[in-house]
Amino acid sequence: MSTREAQQPNLIDSNDFNALKSAVPIVIGISLAVAFQFTIPTAFGPYYSRLVIDAGIAMILAVSLNIVNGMTGQFSIGHAGFMTVGAYTAGMISFYGSLLLWGASAKHGSFLGSGEWMFLTACLTGGVVAAFAGLVVGLPSLRLRGDYLAIVTLGFGEILRVILQQTGKVVDDPAVVREAPLTTLASLPVGGAIGFDGIPKYTSLFWVYAMLSLTVIFAYRLKNSSFGRAMLSVREDEIAAQAMGINIARQKTLAFVMAAFFAGVGGGLLAHEGGVIISPKDAGFQRSFDYVIMTVLGGRGSITGVMLAAVLLSGLPEVLRDFERYRIIVYALLLIIMMLSRPQGLFGIHEIWDYFPKSWKKSSRKGAAR
Amino acid sequence: MTALAIGSLYALIALGYTMVYGILKFINFAHSDIVVLGAWSSYSIAIRALPWIGLDAHNPATPPPLWMSAGIFIAIVLFCSLVGFTIERLAYRPLRRAPRLNVLITAIGVSLLLQNVGQLDFIFGASPQKMPALLPNWELARLAFGSGESTRYVTITLVDTIIFAISGVLMLSLEFLIFRTKFGTALRAVSFNTDHAALMGIPVDRVISLTFMLGSALAGAAGFLYVMKFPGMSQPAHSIWVLLGLKAFVAAVIGGIGNIRGAVLGGFIIAFVEQFGAYYISSNYRDVYVFALLILILLVKPTGLLGSPVREKV
């Protein structure tokens, strides 16, 4: 019920919709990303900027998973699988693309230079390929419900992990790649079990936070659209939703496709992050669990809640680094206590501003142009 | 023969998953950690008990007398059922009325907790160990197939036979317990409809506790038998254990989750597909066969082989 109450003002807002107003959050997001890019590394050093990048990628993945798990009420535990699909696709494009164009796999060009644009294309292509994988995995939802669907997503991640482990060595000789680009690529030279090393490291605060703002704006607008409300109704009661004329199989499949696209983009960012070697292990269930935990802790369907949980959970291991041995134990205990004491997650289905005092809310509503 | 032995192990673990799912409708992710607990505590008991009767724990040629192995086995089963009871009491019972996703997350939390507490130095430690042999390494029979160059031998070892026999006895007694006793009737009633069972005067909480103890006891037994078969033990948080649990869970799903006989059937199917796939096609894709089979079966029959279709009511 309370979702609907919270959405009332937005319904009225959308009547006087105009293109300029809807561009405001994107502009704010991009300028925030630029600001991060030029302040954080100089002010806090590489360690903290890496943490902020990690948190950003975790937020992209958690928010995208929230489309499936939180809004549509399905239970996907193969999200890391989609992420890995995107990561490997993007990695292959930028690695072999760099070899073909510039003869070396190292970073090419400066900030917003030609290399960065190829990196953007690679991430987006990764997203598209991942979205296709999402379609394939989402299709069984025509027949399967609830837990069984969850198991299929789990199986997808595990199959992907094993297949990636059997891939060939990375070919880092530009001559070989130039000679027969297609046959080289067809043999999937992505490093097998040890991982795909040598991907140029383009990921920067700017790209992560620009992508994050796009993801968040997309998720938020989706949640408040008629399409998103159809998803929420599938979550609340499938039979009632069907009776209202909602094609539940289509909603579920599309939720998978959209979530997988952003997971793929997030994977592309992760693959190009300095100090990260993407490997088959990343497709396994353990990483998927991390993201599931973030969405549950944040509250199912609450975008800001999930973002906060993603920041907390990606930062927590760093805080507990001094107690290396006990780190995961504390983490697990926190999780159990959290579930026992606050089962609806940090914010439940609310957004963070639902907790602000009333007087704040009015002014923020004007400013943020939601 | 290996497939039969592994199949019965999968079936034992799958039974635990399927019973908990049947009664509480959630996937108990901490179940595989009870298997680990069974495996590792049998190691730590064995490594201390063998020198006590004057044997070298690291010499596989001198297995201990049978009463000692049996004693360790019973101790493990009791210990694991106690742990299962504690977990249910502390972590799952407060969530009886919570959404199922929350119970699932709690189960993941418990699983992480067990794994990493087990890794601590004063519990099991974080390095792989070799399980001392508790059974003599006998070959009972050797069957030859084919002739000449292509002769293949199938060896039946004592370990395989004992695994198969113990699991068979456990499964049959479980079958008896569930379909022939008062407790079994209560269990089936609770799994059918918890509220109605409570109205009929069935102590629901006690039945659920007992189910957890039963499932954990079977998991502990499976853990013990697993290290009899594969003495090289990975550290408690190694992903090989989680994968073992996942495959057993897949077995439960293939057979139709919530269905006791289905779990046994699924366990053997999984083991045969895995072993024969590894032998005849390629052992690199061992895990793929299992999950691909799962997806295929779910697509054809969404509730598993022996599962009954669930009708949803408004």
How do the strands and helices of this protein lay out in sequence?
The complex is a heterodimer of chains A (370) and B (314).
Chain A: H1 2-13, H2 19-71, H3 79-102, H4 114-138, H5 146-165, H6 174-179, H7 181-186, H8 205-223, H9 226-236, H10 238-243, H11 248-271, H12 285-298, H13 303-319, H14 327-341, H15 358-368
Chain B: H1 2-24, H2 31-52, H3 66-92, H4 100-118, E1 129-130, E2 139-145, E3 152-157, H5 158-180, H6 182-192, H7 194-199, H8 204-229, E4 232-233, H9 239-255, H10 260-280, H11 286-300
Helix pairs in contact in B: 1-5, 1-8, 1-9, 1-10, 2-3, 2-4, 2-8, 2-9, 3-8, 5-6, 5-8, 6-8, 9-10, 9-11, 10-11
Q: Can you offer a commentary on this structure?
A:
The complex is a heterodimer of chains A (370) and B (314). By secondary structure, chain A is an all-alpha fold. Chain A has helices at residues 2-13, 19-71, 79-102, 114-138, 146-165, 174-179, 181-186, 205-223, 226-236, 238-243, 248-271, 285-298, 303-319, 327-341, 358-368. The model of chain A is unreliable at 1-15 and 363-370 (pLDDT under 50). Chain B has one domain. In chain B, 67% of the residues lie in helices and 5% in strands. Chain B has helices spanning 2-24, 31-52, 66-92, 100-118, 158-180, 182-192, 194-199, 204-229, 239-255, 260-280, 286-300, and strands spanning 129-130, 139-145, 152-157, 232-233. A two-stranded antiparallel sheet of chain B has the order 1-4. Chain B starts with a helix and ends in a 14-residue tail after the last helix. The A-B interface holds A 69, 75, 140, 143-145, 147-148, 150-152, 154-156, 158-159, 162-163, 165-166, 238-240, 284-286, 289, 292-293, 296, 300, 325, 328-329, 331-333, 335-336, 339-340, 343 and B 27, 91, 94-95, 98-99, 101-102, 104-106, 108-113, 115-117, 119-121, 237, 239, 242, 246, 249-250, 253, 257, 284-288, 291-292, 294-295, 298-299, 302-303, 312, 314.
